[in-house]
Amino acid sequence: SIDFGIDEGYGQFVDEFLKLGNSTKMIKGGKDVTMPTVKAFKGFLIVLSGFLGALLTFPSFRFGALNSQLLRNVNVSVEGEDKPGYKESLYEKLTQVLVHFNLIAPLLVILCWCKPLVQEHIETQVDISDKTFSLLRISFIAVIMLVRLFSIKLYAQTHLDSAKRYVHNLKREAGRIDHKTVQQK
To answer: Residue 69 contacts by C-beta under 8 Å, 6 or more apart in sequence?
Structure first.
């Protein structure tokens, strides 16, 4: 079974709380304050995770759309491959790999932090200590940060070009368009 260490984390939380209060119950304003149960602790983590998931959903969709547009901008999409005599340049291939890696990088980070999944797989391949495994995970995060830092120029330019693309699409629509419509969108 997969263990995320929640029970151990709760145990450490209880130990620190007890050190703070020096007893199993703390007196606050004349009322007894007891430790939250394991179910309450896990419930709090569930609510917090749900809130963070809801908060990060829209930016994730926007980032996916930005990736799709970036691939179209460097002629790596399916439309570019249909042209006769079309051959991808090294720049286009590297950009495509970079964009796809940036898209799946958060998933890889999450998988690295699910210790039982990754560590068991790595231990079957290579004998590795916990300290080395932690160092590898942190190094992997550093590599992802560097890749994202180097690719920010591509993403920023694609984001800036989205306004130009939107105005171009507006101009192709039938009928007359006044300046207020263009400024609102």
So the answer is: 158, 161, 162, 165
Give the C-alpha distances (Å, rounded to integers) separating 6 from 44, 45, 97, 111. 12, 9, 36, 17
The pLDDT tens digits for 77-116 are 445 455 556 666 787 888 888 889 999 998 888 888 777 7
* Other CB atoms within 10 Å distance of the CB of residue 74: 19
| Angle at 98 (CA atoms; ends 97, 103), nearest 5 degrees | 100
β-pair partners for 26? 33
pLDDT of residue 134: 83
In 31-175, at which residue ranges do the beta strands (DSSP E only) sit? 31-33
In this structure, what is the dihedral angle of CA atoms 171, 177, 179, 181, given to the nearest 10 degrees?
A: -90
pTM as predicted: 0.61
